[in-house]
Design brief:
heterodimer, A: mainly alpha, 0% strand, B: alpha+beta, four-stranded mixed β-sheet, 15 helices, 20 strands, globular, proteasome binding (chain A), Prokaryotic ubiquitin-like protein Pup (chain A), protein tag activity (chain A), Ubiquitin-like_Pup (chain A), ubl conjugation pathway (chain A)
């Protein structure tokens, strides 16, 4: 997502667009990013083992190579 | 040479029996391997042939005595643990207390990725089949390297090298590379120290478990350079470099870069191309220091006094490798060599500028990003069990539960292969090595095969009193080009053995 923020804006047109509505543009992007993060965390919340503490305690392995 | 050489990986999977934390992991591992064998291996099950195994042979030129060896080092003793050879040429077995999959021998980094990922699918299939037995609890497998309570288990790489290369050259030029390659092929870990009690995130799963610079052991006093010298090929011509320092990667790009760059560095060592001395002062400490700084600013000291970050040390190798490939191949360099160099350069550049931009390529970055998102959303402290859970569950190989798989499913991690390419490698052998001969024989003549190993297939033919051992000592013979048509033509094992011994 850091990549998305770094989109180069080289053409005059893009500069103009940035000048016209810089705040809403940034805000919009921030919102999209937040939604993005929320979406993946929501999905992962759904699959994470429910009792983290018990799970971590019982994950015991024998050593190997 | 280029990135191409005979190579393979072997991964020990973490295993847990749900609801039974005290279950015997050897029994559970055997159930997994046997369930797969019973369901997929037809007719008689070929044994593993231990004749050519010598795990105590040391690359420095001596054998360790069996009496003084730690029992866990004796990997050639057939303990009756489950052990099968698959039609893709791979070996599926129980090693110590873990199910393990060794890829067939391949010759390119992308084929390593393909048959290594096929191994994950074999393990997934095996665990699901084990669960179908009446009364069986669910067994879950993890492609990781530590329980974060003091135990570690390996993900090894093997590279065939020229015997003529002095081992001291390998140690000298490979150690700094191994100390620093984790910046792109670490799998990420929550916790520090072998028992994981130290707080924070580190780049590598394995770094804290390495205690010496060079040695034969793999289960204790783990060395950065392992000296096990079992070539499984003509020992006059070859050595097999057994690499134990790597993390088990889920990311296809991380595996591809790990193996591709290592193969290139080995080529430079074999061709005596490395003129710079990059010797690290205190490599064991440097390995940990680099791992413990996901910010990638930690500076380590070279023997010549220079102070470099892990990325800068990798840039030294990249610079040498670019010159080497240009010098030896110019415009004729093969596509994967060119691709490995380009990706290596891109990844190091991004690590310098913005590591988080690699969350869709590298395991440790993907894991760290997820953990940071949870920390910021839920305000979790580093010792919160949830963060540890995320670390474990990233490597759960079930597509519905594994977090790596969920990220791939959401389009957040790039792949190099399609599902179909991986699935077909579960049963089909690679074409360019003796694994082709092994795999095709097992697929076509299973009832007549008594045993097999890396360097032989042993037939038990009807009407013959003695077993017929077909040696496959040269890893590059027995390829599809070599025996494909012959196997197609021979309807029975007897015909094949007659044709081969004529």
């Amino acid at each position: 997502m850091a990549q998305e923020q770094k989109q180069p804006r080289k053409s005059d047109e893009a500069d103009e667009a940035t000048e016209v509505a810089p705040e809403s543009d940034v805000a919009e992007r921030k919102e999209t990013l937040d939604d993005d993060v929320d979406a993946i965390l929501d999905e992962i919340d759904d699959v994470l083992e429910t009792n983290a503490e018990d799970f971590v305690k019982s994950f015991i392995q024998k050593g190997g190579q | 040479m280029s990135v191409r050489r005979v190579m393979g990986t072997e991964v020990e999977y973490g295993i847990s029996v749900q609801g039974q934390p005290t279950a015997n992991p050897m029994v559970a591992s055997s159930q997994v391997v046997n369930a797969y064998a019973t369901a997929t291996v037809r007719a008689r099950r070929a044994r593993w042939d231990f004749e050519e195994e010598s795990p105590l042979r040391d690359a420095r030129g001596f054998d360790m005595s069996r009496q003084i060896a730690d029992p866990t080092q004796l990997t050639d003793e057939d303990l009756g643990l489950a052990n099968v050879i698959l039609t893709n040429g791979a070996r599926l077995y129980v090693d110590h207390a873990h199910p393990e999959y060794s890829t067939p021998e391949v010759v390119t980094p992308l084929d390593i990725v393909r048959w290594d990922k096929a191994g994950e699918q074999v393990m997934l299939d095996a665990a699901r089949r084990a669960q179908q037995l009446p009364g069986s609890p669910q067994i879950v497998l993890y492609k990781n390297n530590t329980d974060n309570k003091g135990a570690s288990y390996g993900a090894h790489e093997n590279y065939l090298m020229r015997r003529s290369t002095p081992f001291a050259d390998i140690v000298r030029h490979l150690t700094p590379f191994f100390v620093s390659r984790q910046v792109f092929c670490g799998a990420g870990r929550v916790g520090r120290g072998q028992d994981g009690r130290g707080e924070g995130f580190q780049i590598s799963q394995r770094a804290d478990f390495f205690e010496v610079e060079v040695g034969l052991e793999t289960t204790l006093k783990r060395p950065i350079i392992n000296t096990r010298d079992e070539p499984h090929a003509d020992p006059e011509k070859y050595r097999r470099l057994h690499v134990i320092i790597g993390d088990a990667n889920l990311s296809e790009i991380a595996t591809y870069l790990k193996v591709g760059t290592t193969s290139l560095v080995l080529a430079m060592i074999e061709d005596r191309f490395i003129s710079r001395d990059l010797t690290v002062d205190g490599p064991v400490g440097a390995l940990r220091a680099i791992s413990h700084d996901p910010g990638l600013r930690e500076v380590i000291t070279l023997a010549d006094g220079r102070r470099l970050t892990g990325i800068q040390l990798q840039l030294e190798y990249l610079d040498l490798a670019k010159k080497y490939v240009e010098d030896r191949y110019g415009a004729d360099a093969d596509a994967q060599t060119v691709d490995v160099l380009a990706r290596w350069e891109d990844v190091l550049g991004r690590l310098e500028a913005d590591p988080m931009s690699l969350a869709d390529q590298l395991d440790w970055v993907a894991k760290l990003k997820l953990i940071e998102q949870y920390r910021s959303r839920d305000g979790l402290a580093w010792n919160d069990a949830k963060l540890q859970l995320i670390d474990y569950q990233y490597s759960d190989i079930r597509p519905e539960k594994g977090l790596y798989h969920r990220l791939v499913g959401a389009g957040r991690i790039q792949r190099l292969l399609t599902d179909d390419e991986v699935d077909s490698a579960m049963t089909n052998p690679p074409a360019e090595t003796r694994a082709y001969f092994r795999g095709r024989c097992l697929e076509k003549y299973a009832p007549d095969i008594a045993a097999a190993s890396w360097d032989s297939v042993i037939f038990d033919l009807p009407g013959r009193e003695s077993l017929q051992r077909v040696p496959t000592i040269d890893p590059l013979r027995g390829s599809k080009a070599h025996v494909g048509a012959l196997i197609d033509k021979c309807a029975t094992a007897d015909e094949l053995v007659r044709a081969l011994t004529r």
